[in-house]
Amino acid sequence: MRILVNGVWRETVSAELAATLEELGYGGRIVSTAVNGEFVAADARSGCTLVNGDRVEVLAPMQGG
Amino acid sequence: MLKLYDSELASRLLLGTARYPSPAVLTDAVRAARAEVVTVSLRREGAADRSGQGFWSIIRGLGVRVLPNTAGCHTVKEAVTTAHMAREVFGTPWVKLEVIGEDDTLQPDVFGLTEAARILCAEGFEVFPYTTEDLVVAERLLAAGCRVLMPWGSPIGSGRGLNNLFGLTALRAHFPDVPLVIDAGLGVPSHAAQAMELGFDAVLINTAVAQATDPVTMAAAFAQAVEAGRAARLAGPIEPRDFAEPSTPVVGQAFLG
């Protein structure tokens, strides 16, 4: 499957968001996610099915003013 | 004590966490400022990059409250979604709501701001809206459910101080019981002291500390200025006069001409 992760096209095999995050190396991280601009809570990632062309955002804590 | 929503705070200096030369300097600056609230944000993180995880570990170690922002958002949808994501990561209902309307000045889009505030307040967020000194916008934000307002002093990062003294003074006078935090544009401690002397409840500083030659000393200087300004406000400053008024009594003065 080809999905856009943080603005970069990635080839993945997992069908669900939670497994995709593991596959991409985000396992255990404190991150928040959105798919196609919609927030996906941590406890909803397992039930979030991804399809070709989906836009996934993976955000982490960062410095801010 | 400063009360922001249901939290009582001894410090009236809120500090941003961006643009410091190093994490160690950031840590020392937060301590020197005696800040109890720091602003944070969310950004993309690559799988090979753990900087965000390290940053969050440092902030948690400081034992301060975090105020997540929606910096960089230009639409209501972006801001609302970012707030949802921040609430999950940072575990707080607080959100510093920014909806930017103009890129040269980073002026808030007050129409989008009030709409996003209405949505988020209804969802239980405790919203700190980054706004202008506009009284009508302030009324709308309060009607939307905001219980704190954060008017700008001047454009973010400009260091220009309080650009519109008349407007800010009017805002303070119009909402005497609403916590008002000057957010953005302060450059030197005297700007912070001036804000406190005008009766604002607190100030939020980032660039003026982080980009100073010595951020830690500057953080301490801002803390002192905020305390001095607050004390002066409570002490009741005199009104400016157009002409001189002798401070030394004239009664009993010798005639030596």
Task: Give a verbal description of the structure.
- The complex is a heterodimer of chains A (65) and B (257).
- Chain A has a 5-stranded mixed sheet, with no helix packed on it.
- Helices cover 12% and strands 37% of the residues of chain A.
- Chain A contains 1 helix and 5 strands.
- In chain A, a hairpin with a 2-residue loop joins strand 1 and strand 2 (8-11).
- Chain A has one helix at 17-24; strands at 2-5, 8-11, 32-35, 38-40, 55-63.
- The mean pLDDT of chain A is 96.
- Chain A has 65 residues and is mainly beta.
- With 257 residues, chain B is α/β, with parallel strands linked by helices.
- In chain B, 41% of the residues lie in helices and 18% in strands.
- Chain B has helices spanning 23-33, 51-62, 76-90, 110-122, 135-144, 165-174, 189-197, 207-210, 215-235, and strands at residues 2-4, 7-9, 13-16, 37-44, 65-68, 94-97, 100-102, 107-108, 126-131, 150-151, 181-183, 202-205.
- In chain B, the strands form 4 sheets. In chain B, strands 5-4-3-12-11 form a 5-stranded parallel sheet. A 3-stranded parallel sheet of chain B has the order 6-9-10. A two-stranded antiparallel ribbon of chain B has the order 1-2.
- In chain B, helix 4 (110-122) runs parallel beside helix 5 and helix 7 (189-197) packs parallel to helix 9 (215-235).
- Chain B is globular, with a radius of gyration of 20 Å.
- The model of chain B has no long low-confidence stretch (mean pLDDT 96).
- Classes of the chains: A mainly beta (65), B alpha/beta (257).
- Chains A and B meet through strand 3 and strand 5 of A and strand 4, helix 2 and helix 3 of B.
